[in-house]
Write a structure and sequence with these properties.
The chain has about 300 residues and is α/β, with parallel strands linked by helices. The chain has eleven helices and 13 strands.
């Protein structure tokens, strides 16, 4: 088996405008919207670190300074908490600053995910790297990224995360044509289609926001024209790599993920995520669930009365 380079760096694109959450995101990055008491972006960085990736490059844009501040030290706040003897909150504040070695680069223009990834080329160099999208949160109890890195280090090429959805949902995602391998959870990608019509989709396995890319993707992205929506699509570059010889960084694999994923990219799913996380918190669940049951019961009663 070939000896493929280890994956040590993570790239987190965070330059989007967050228009779905306006006006909340007018001055606050969508990545900083809290899931209970921790910003969504911190869960993503924690996932990278848990997978062994302590070098994290954040691709940012205008009005994203608060992301940098969050992962930096806050000395005045720390001193105030220390003076109060509030060790619990002090530890929580310091945790984000001590998570990883953080780097930042601005995308400049919103030219799509492919362009955002291309902005990482100087930092990453010719090493393989992981890409984690902030809108997708993977439950900390599921080792998806670790498995993807393992597949890359065993097979080379690039790796995408796949989830199975109902046929009527494929048009909202990138979709993969797949072939089985000798591993039950690993498939070979033969084609990728961005947001196909339901009757044109090659399968009902969609790409979710985790990738492990060979550095060859940069060479392809440099030549990839804008695609769907006038943006440079990472999916298009990976599709090219799927047809590229392995000794040139080609081959694209898929890891079938059947675990817990939280999509925080739209309001409804964001609210579901907050409720689910609050329901599982030891310090909140008892009181929160008691209130939630009562709220639902009252709501059901009102709905039934109105429906008569």
């Amino acid at each position: 088996m070939a000896d493929y380079a280890r994956v040590t760096k993570a790239v987190v694109p965070a330059a989007g405008l967050g228009t779905r959450f306006l006006p909340a995101t007018k001055a606050t990055p969508k990545e900083m919207l809290p899931i209970v008491d921790k910003p969504a972006i911190q869960y993503v960085v924690e996932e990278a670190v848990d997978a062994g990736l302590s070098d994290v490059l954040m691709i940012t844009g205008r009005n994203k300074r608060s992301i940098e501040d969050h992962f930096d030290r806050a000395y005045e706040l720390e001193e105030a908490l220390d003076a109060k003897g509030d060790t619990e909150r002090l530890a929580a504040v310091r945790e984000s600053a001590d998570l990883a070695i953080m780097h930042y680069v601005r995308q400049g223009e919103p030219k799509g995910l492919g362009h955002a990834v291309y902005c990482a080329r100087q930092h990453v160099g010719r090493e393989p790297f992981a890409v984690l999208l902030g809108d997708d949160m993977i439950d900390a109890r599921d080792d998806l990224l670790k498995r993807m890195i393992e597949v890359r280090e065993q097979r080379g090429g690039s790796v995408v995360a796949l989830m199975e959805v109902a046929p009527d949902q494929v048009s909202a995602y990138g979709c993969a044509a797949i072939e089985a391998t000798d591993d039950d959870d690993v498939v070979k990608i033969t084609d990728l289609v961005e947001k196909p019509a339901a009757d044109e989709a090659p399968s009902n396995w969609i790409i979710i926001g985790r990738y492990v890319c060979d550095a060859a993707v940069f060479d392809v992205l440099e030549k990839t024209p804008p695609g769907r929506g006038g943006e440079i699509q990472l999916t298009d570059a990976l599709r090219t790599l799927a047809d590229t010889p392995a000794d040139q960084g080609g081959a694209v694999w898929g890891v079938k993920f059947r675990g817990r994923r939280y999509d925080t990219g739209n309001k409804l799913e964001y609210l579901r995520t907050v409720v689910q996380f609050a329901s599982e918190r030891e310090d909140l669940s008892a009181e929160f669930m008691e209130w939630l049951r009562g709220f639902v019961a009252d709501h059901d009663g009102v709905g039934t009365a109105e429906g008569k």
